[in-house]
Amino acid sequence: MSILATNISKHFGPTAALDDVTLEVESGQLVALVGPSGSGKTTLLRILAGLETPDPGSGEIRFHGENVSGLPVQKRQVGMVFQHYALFRHLSVEQNIAFGLTVKKRVERPTRTAIRAKVDELLHLVQLDGLGKRLPSQLSGGQRQRVALARALAIEPRILLLDEPFGALDAKVRKDLRRWLRHFHESIKLTTVFVTHDQEEALELADEVVVMNRARIAQVGPPQAVFDRPESPFVIEFMGNVNRLEAGMAANGSRPHDQLYVRPHDVEIRPQGEHGTLPARVLHIFSAGSAGRLTLERLTNRELIEAEISRAELDELQLSAGQEVGIRFRHIRLFAKTAEGRQELVENDELAHSLNQG
Ligand SMILES: Nc1ncnc2c1ncn2[C@@H]1O[C@H](COP(=O)(O)OP(=O)(O)OP(=O)(O)O)[C@@H](O)[C@H]1O
Q1: Per-residue pLDDT tens over the stretch 276-294
Q2: β pairing state of 291-298 and 259-262
């Protein structure tokens, strides 16, 4: 186990930023902390780094088995990159990358030649060969973030912590850098925890996704598990688009307090009146993306339903706004209240079948 943080709590005055959080990260993994604003992601990251201390008496942090709870940030051997981690403006790219090494105590400081070699190696690693002499102002946003990453790696950290590393970049650069980071991680396999508020980023990048909500961890798992087997209404609503259906009368077989969800890609569009479909009207068609997205209205209860189908299917169906169709739910997720008042996931394809009958 590379990181083991147990029973961490943190209060800022009356606000609980973390409430008894336990996080385990295996060596070499790329882990995403994702959750709404204020859920405690940054606080957890800062506590791992040693920039913030947990509540007195709460919890313990171990890196590779060693208890680092009492160690200050410089002694924890973590590399950090933040959203607005300003590079030193008056230093060249090379000097920025070398910074952590040049400020080491004389006995620990590598020789000049060794620093040079290290900087070249890092420039190559982050694919900025030849740009070492430039100033940060002469680089693009994405290049600057890669310099920040190289600077974080220069000290040979045991763990890499990234707080919204692509947050300040535009969508295209962000996507490119995301892919680049995944590839980069494959090549160095350094245990990495990154904070993002972007679900898609978490699902696309991470080996393991940690979903946070209100100072606690709501669910941990590989991307697909978190997406396909959400353990709570919160997780299903937070991780990707979802339709919440009216329970009770409107959905045969469900009880009024149940919560029913259908992902847009689990909504099938069929011809109007087809057996086993629900009557609906097409309100909007969005066809400008890689998938076709539709907003529909169920005729029986005026419920709005989002559907996502392939572009090929959308083109084939030749739909237009106002048209009536039949919709079918392939898969429904139902959360039922348990006796203790918790919400429990019941996979319920029978319900989908009975609901589709109208
Ligand atoms: N230094 C601080 N002083 C007071 N309250 C704080 C401080 N830092 C964080 N908080 C509070 O702790 C809670 C968790 O904040 P945190 O920054 O960890 O959330 P987050 O999930 O990273 O949010 P965001 O996505 O908006 O960055 C919030 O309610 C926040 O207002």
Answers
A1: 899 999 999 998 888 899 9
A2: unpaired
In DSSP terms, 209 is beta-bridged to 32, 221
CATH number of 241-357: 2.40.50.100
CA–centroid distance, residue 40 to ligand 1 (Å): 6
Using DSSP bridges, classify how beta strands 304-310 and 243-245 pair: parallel, antiparallel or unpaired: unpaired
Residue by residue, DSSP assigns 50-74 as TSS-PSTT--EEEETTEE-TT--GG
| Ligand 1 atom at minimal distance to the Cα of residue 46 | 18
Closest atom of ligand 1 relative to the 44 alpha carbon: 18
Helices (H), the chain: 41-49, 93-102, 112-125, 141-154, 171-188, 199-205, 223-228, 233-238, 311-317, 349-356
Domain boundaries, the chain: 3-235, 241-357
Does ipTM come in above 0.85? yes
If you measure from the C-alpha of residue 235 to the centroid of ligand 1, how many angstroms do you get, rounded to a whole number? 20
Identify the residues whose C-beta falls under 6 Å from ligand 1. Answer: 12, 15, 17, 35, 37-43, 197
Pocket-testing residue among 15, 21, 163, 193, ligand 1, by greatest number of atoms within 8 A of Cβ: 15
Q: Which amino acid is at 15?
A: T
Name the token pair of 45. Answer: 């990251």
pTM, entire model = 0.88
At the top level of CATH, which class does the domain 3-235 belong to? alpha beta
Residue 261 tokens, joined? 């969800």
Hey, is 88 helix, strand or coil? coil
Q: What angle do CA 216, 222, 225 make, to 5 degrees?
A: 90
